């Protein structure tokens, strides 16, 4: 009876609370004509109690000094954003103004509108109010709100704020990014408060991973001024999220937020201590995001191919060995393998069992990636390994002491915790894979050594022949020294690089008589070989077949340039041969051939792999343009000149067409056109000087090819009535970028990054070289460090 009376009293108390008017006054502090500028020292409007401010906040890690419109706690040392406008970043010099027409408008420095409220029709505001609850409102003549930030939710809810049915809070993309992320708190029309994963950028809701189960009509999520958060149906609490006293609003600041890791957390901090260095978590939903098992395959809290480990109430996102983060600054976005994905090709690493090993992780599982259901019972660990080893599609095997499961890419919802009684066996190539060298070559070297030994014995039997040999050696030494003096000016730069000089005979033997061709170019052919000094290491030997004036020039250029460059995205020069009429270059051998073979082959390479390759090429070009002691223009950037090593790291090759610039020189005169049809910059056909921007243009074309997996040359020669560049731009303008990546699910689920890459490419292929960004700027835009503005239409030159 007593408990029944208590429930009645609680219901009456709640009902009274619901009808108590808000104590916050609507202080009409900002009349029409009021404005803020990002150039001001403190560009903000304060609430009467000065606990909240609205104004400009600088974008984190932004080199362009841009801002976004936000509301934040004003008296806390650590800036805590509680609301922000969804709009393009505002350049320095932008203004926020309450116009004479009664609208709140964000203008850029040129006076263009970036954002405005109310957006269409409706009553006009007479003034604005930043009230003590953290709610910014536009008020009409009767002091009634016609628009308020409490009704335009972002990721945070404050005391005094209510979330109605159909409303939601959306997590940010990462700790530093204010773009929409992969998680959402949604109060459904049926009254259930649910945490969902979301597919971006479409916003399509996927699996639910936490819910209140409050299936009642007329539900609201209320966060009252005393720090209690609950779901109510209008007459009673139907679900209490806050179980304990969180402290009064006089003594504590309160807020609740769905964080970028998918956890909905309620926070508080004491006003007397200015919150110290960090907010304290009162409650989190769910308690352990890593232990949540979703009902469908998805990226989980840490992204694909990662392992989620709960650490101090937050998910720590780890990558398996031989994997790396997609984004070092947003580790919850997942991991990528540092090796070629299993393809079941005859020459794939997974097909050569001697090159495969397993890394074991205890208490670890990827629960939703089975492509082969539980494989019987009574399977021990070694048998489980062998089952995965024998299956070229198997990425990971999971063993629980009795049964075995095979997993496929991408690995979904990875987690590690003590109560997961499973061992993950991750299949990877051995770190230092040593390729088998040519057996026949070893035999040839052995036979030649035997011949030399026999000849030496015969020569040793004759005094006369010994005298002749001595004279011959003296003459050879003289001519060798004389030739070095003649060539000292042309090879001094080569000597300074510590690269080795080879005899022609050595390289002829290394290639087995120049038999195995890797590729051909305008000036020579590249052969595969094995050096006697490194019998377990393949090399690529370029033999110049035209060494007259042009070939000679190319040879000296490559030796002097590549020998002095050191970057992980450039092919390394190991040695050279300058003997008589023979000119050869010895390079590292790139296991996975050219980017052209990867892009335009039968199967489309993985989207994330293509993105990472594009980043690597951009970094390599940035090194050539800005970080070398001698600035280098490559002049022939194309897929055929991008090689891929054993881990598919891109390496820029073929500097034979490079133009060199001294430190003080930024332009060179155009002599003859250099490069390849389809990748030429417009200035090659005009009187304009040639700068590093010709490489930027070629990179833009290459980037479009990598996005679409289509050759620009083949595209232009096909049945299409437009060039690849024009087709891409048309799709971009019509907001139909999905056409560029048809049948590429990973790319279609990553539309924000796809759009960024397309915009960067369009900037790179501008006809006016001055409009093209530098490769440093290109690299920053690709990696998301710098935002990309809307590019102008490329020239009609693209079609010609």
Characterize this entry briefly.
The protein is of the alpha+beta class and 800 residues long. Helices cover 23% and strands 26% of the residues. The protein has 4 domains: 24-152, Orthogonal Prism (Agglutinin, subunit A), CATH 2.90.10; 159-287, Agglutinin, subunit A (Orthogonal Prism), CATH 2.90.10; 307-429, 3-Layer(bba) Sandwich (Hepatocyte Growth Factor), CATH 3.50.4; 604-653 and 668-799, Transferase(Phosphotransferase), domain 1 (Orthogonal Bundle).
Question: What does the model show?
Answer:
The strands form 13 sheets. This protein has a 6-stranded mixed beta sheet, sandwiched between helices. The model is unreliable at 1-25, 432-464, 481-496, 660-671 and 796-800 (pLDDT under 50). Strand 43 (642-644) and strand 44 (650-652) form a beta hairpin. It has 14 helices and 45 strands. It is globular and about 110 Å long. It has 800 residues and is of the alpha+beta class.
């Amino acid at each position: 009876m007593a408990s029944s009376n208590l429930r009645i009293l609680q219901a009456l108390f709640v009902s009274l609370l619901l009808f108590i008017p808000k104590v916050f006054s609507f202080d009409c502090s900002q009349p029409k004509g009021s404005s803020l500028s990002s150039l001001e020292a403190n560009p903000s409007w304060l609430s009467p109690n000065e606990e909240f401010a609205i104004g400009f906040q600088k974008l984190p890690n932004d080199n362009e000094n841009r801002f976004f419109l936000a509301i934040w706690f004003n008296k806390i040392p650590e800036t805590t954003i509680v609301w922000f406008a969804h709009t393009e970043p505002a350049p320095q010099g932008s203004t926020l103004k309450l116009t004479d027409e009664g609208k709140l408008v964000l203008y850029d420095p040129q006076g263009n509108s970036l954002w405005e409220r109310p957006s269409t029709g409706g009553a006009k505001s007479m003034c604005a109010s930043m009230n003590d609850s953290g709610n910014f409102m536009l008020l009409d003549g009767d002091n009634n709100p016609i628009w308020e930030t409490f009704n335009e939710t972002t990721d945070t809810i404050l005391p005094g704020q209510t979330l109605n049915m159909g409303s939601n809070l959306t997590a940010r993309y990462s700790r530093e990014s204010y773009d929409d992320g992969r998680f959402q708190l949604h109060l459904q029309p049926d009254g259930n408060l649910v945490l969902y994963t979301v597919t971006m950028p479409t916003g399509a809701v996927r699996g639910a991973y936490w819910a209140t189960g409050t299936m009642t009509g007329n539900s609201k999520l209320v966060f009252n001024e005393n720090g209690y958060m609950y779901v109510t149906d209008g007459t009673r609490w139907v679900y209490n999220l806050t179980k304990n006293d969180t402290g009064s609003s006089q003594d504590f600041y309160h807020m609740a937020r769905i964080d970028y890791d998918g956890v909905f957390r309620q926070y508080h901090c004491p006003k007397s201590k200015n919150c110290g260095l960090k907010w304290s978590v009162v409650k989190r939903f769910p308690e352990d995001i890593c232990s949540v098992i979703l009902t469908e395959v998805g990226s989980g809290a840490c992204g694909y191919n990662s392992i989620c480990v709960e650490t101090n109430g937050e998910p720590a996102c780890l990558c398996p060995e031989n994997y790396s983060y997609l984004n070092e600054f947003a580790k919850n976005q997942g991991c990528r393998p540092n090796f070629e994905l299993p393809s079941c090709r005859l020459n794939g690493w997974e097909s050569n069992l001697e090159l495969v090993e397993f890394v074991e992780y205890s208490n670890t599982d990827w629960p939703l990636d089975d492509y082969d259901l539980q494989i019987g019972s009574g399977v021990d660990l070694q048998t489980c390994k062998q089952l995965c080893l024998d299956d070229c599609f198997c990425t990971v095997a999971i063993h629980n002491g009795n049964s075995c499961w095979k997993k496929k890419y991408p690995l979904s919802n990875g987690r590690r915790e003590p109560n997961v009684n499973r061992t993950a066996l991750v299949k990877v190539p051995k770190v230092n894979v040593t390729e088998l060298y040519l057996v026949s070559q070893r035999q040839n070297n052995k036979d030649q050594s035997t011949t030399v030994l026999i000849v030496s014995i015969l020569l040793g039997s004759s005094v006369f022949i010994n005298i002749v040999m001595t004279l011959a050696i003296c003459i050879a030494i003289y001519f060798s020294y004389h030739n070095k003096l003649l060539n000292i000016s042309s090879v001094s730069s080569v000597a300074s690089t510590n690269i080795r000089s080879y005899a022609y005979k050595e390289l002829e033997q290394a290639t087995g008589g120049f038999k195995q061709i890797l590729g051909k170019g305008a000036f020579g052919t590249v052969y595969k070989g094995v050096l006697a000094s490194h019998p377990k290491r393949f090399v690529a030997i370029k033999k110049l077949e035209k060494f007259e004036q042009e070939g000679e020039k190319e040879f000296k250029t490559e030796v002097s340039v590549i020998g002095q460059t050191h970057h992980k995205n450039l092919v390394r020069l190991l040695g050279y041969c300058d003997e008589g009429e023979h000119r050869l270059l010895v390079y590292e051998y790139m296991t996975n051939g050219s980017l052209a073979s990867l892009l335009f082959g039968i199967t489309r390479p993985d989207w994330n792999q293509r993105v990472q390759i594009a980043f690597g090429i951009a970094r390599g070009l940035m090194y050539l343009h800005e970080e070398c002691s001698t600035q280098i223009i490559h002049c022939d950037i194309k897929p055929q000149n991008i090689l891929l090593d054993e881990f598919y790291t891109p390496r820029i090759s073929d500097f034979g067409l490079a133009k060199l610039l001294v430190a003080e020189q930024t332009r060179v005169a155009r002599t003859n056109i250099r490069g390849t049809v389809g990748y030429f910059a417009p200035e090659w056909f005009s009187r304009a000087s040639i700068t590093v921007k010709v490489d930027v243009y070629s990179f833009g074309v290459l980037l479009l090819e990598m996005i679409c997996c289509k050759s620009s040359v083949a595209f232009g020669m096909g049945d299409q009535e437009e060039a690849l560049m024009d087709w891409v731009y048309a799709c971009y303008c019509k907001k139909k970028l999905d056409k560029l990546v048809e049948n590429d699910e990973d790319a279609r689920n990553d539309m924000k990054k796809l759009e960024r890459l397309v915009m960067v490419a369009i900037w790179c292929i501008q006809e006016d070289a001055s409009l093209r960004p530098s490769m440093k700027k290109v690299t920053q835009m690709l990696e998301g460090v710098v935002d990309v503005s809307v590019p102008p239409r490329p020239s009609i030159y693209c079609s010609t």
